[in-house]
Amino acid sequence: MPSFLHPDRFLGTDPALVAIARPLYESVARLPLVCPHGHVDPALLALDERFPEPTALMIAPDHYVLRMVYSLGVPFERLGVPRLDGTPSPADPRDVWRTLAAHWHAFAATPTRAWWEYQLHEVLEIPERLSPATADAIYDAIETRLAEPAFRPRALFERFGIEVLTTTDGASDSLEHHEKIRTSGWKGRVVPCFRPDAACKIASPGWWTEIERLSRVSGRAIDSYRAFLQVLAERRRRFRELGATSTDHGVESPFTHRLSAQAAANLFEKALSGTADAADQAAFEAHMLVEMARMSLEDGLVMQLHAGSLRNHNPWLAATYGPDRGADIPVAVDWTRGLRPLLSECGNDARFRLVLFTLDEATYSRELAPIAGHYPAVRLGPPWWFHDSIEGMLRYRSLVTETAGFWNTAGFNDDTRAFLSIPARHDLARRIDARYVASLVADRRIAEDEAPRIMEALAVGLARDTYRLG
């Protein structure tokens, strides 16, 4: 099959540098994929059914695609996205595909373009580039592929070489799909990740619904702060029984603060009475981050903290189509002061593991690298969302390596809902890491014989170690 993907893509333009980078990339290109953080629905692998038609698979759930085409003035109803109230999109799937093809030029030089071209060529075995002229033929070819047993979810999981796939699951999730995977006899390793955010947002409209769900799934009344903590601890144990090794917490600001037990209980009582306000929620969330760190120190779950994103910046879009539609926007954050209470309590204990992610790149060299380069508990997560891109990954390595080194970072994770893009994202990361490590060799900053060990660590070793997946 002819390829439109250059074999040395993303390895740089200097021939001497490419000559170093190419064998480094090739040394890790076929290593297993360790996926310690992502948002693939476990039902996909529990049910192992035929994928839906191409737009439902590749466009509607991909917020990178949606946000770009929406920014060009195309409404969501033309992109096959159902409304939050359950109203289906009136658009014909083939017309949705044609709409994307008509705007494909806008994705030039974006990571989405790189991921999609890998999916089309390497995963779906499509030899043509997407364009208005090829749109219908590519749609038909994908439909043919998806009808084949080799393109079922579990078959692709094995073909991709996924060693472990971590999903992200709410604290009140029943975990039924993880149960089904474990009892199916299939050998693929899919594990949950405990995310309690909704249970800690005590002033949000959906908080009571989450508490009721937690109560049902745990079989316990949550009528006090003490009962709340006990249920969260029990849920963490249940997640661990199904293979979980991590928790995940998404916050706008990484503000942490230890409240007294009575003060925390008073805030929870206000929430139960329906009188908690935004200030109460901020104080409670800051306290619960410290409490979650304490629990992680006890049960060994690795704690992930994603900060610097103002979620659902477009209120109309969120109200009409729901969250995670491409409208989360980066904001400035203060890690140094914000994390000090949590790190004062847990950061010096090497048994605790805290992985930090940010959308505020200005903090890489000023705050995050010095924090990770000092505290035994801290590791830096890779570039996230807007910055898991060619230039974003290079900036990250350049800004953090001199201070934190490689071994205080967490390797790579794909952080995706788009199952077919998983190998594409790992391939891009391995190419960019090969390019960066090659530059260190060329600059005589590391010895040539050190480079392969660094590449193996960046590709798989650090993720296995950071997330205790060995």
* Radius of gyration based on Cα positions: 22 Å
Q: At CATH's second level, what is the architecture of the largest domain?
A: Alpha-Beta Barrel
The largest beta-sheet arranges its strands as 6-7-10-11
Total domains, how many?
2
Residue windows where pLDDT falls under 50 for at least 5 positions: none
CATH H level of the largest domain: which superfamily?
Metal-dependent hydrolases
| Helix share, percent | 40-55%
CATH classification, class level of the largest domain: Alpha Beta
CATH topology of the largest domain: TIM Barrel
Largest sheet: 4 strands, parallel
Overall shape: globular
The percentage of residues in β strands lies in: 5-15%
Task: Tell me the number of strands.
Answer: 11
Tell me the distance between the termini.
37 Å
Q: What is the SS-derived class?
A: alpha/beta
Distinct helical segment count: 21
Q: If you average the pLDDT, what whole number results?
A: 96
3D architecture notes:
- The chain has helices at about 15-30, 40-45, 55-60, 65-70, 95-100, 110-125, 135-145, 155-160, 175-185, 195-200, 205-220, 225-240, 260-275, 280-300, 315-320, 335-340, 340-345, 365-370, 390-405, 420-440, 450-465, and strands at about 35, 160-165, 170, 190, 195, 245-250, 300-305, 310, 330, 355-360, 380.
- It has a 4-stranded parallel sheet, with helices on one face. It has a 3-stranded parallel sheet with strand order 1-2-4.
- The protein contains 21 helices and 11 strands.
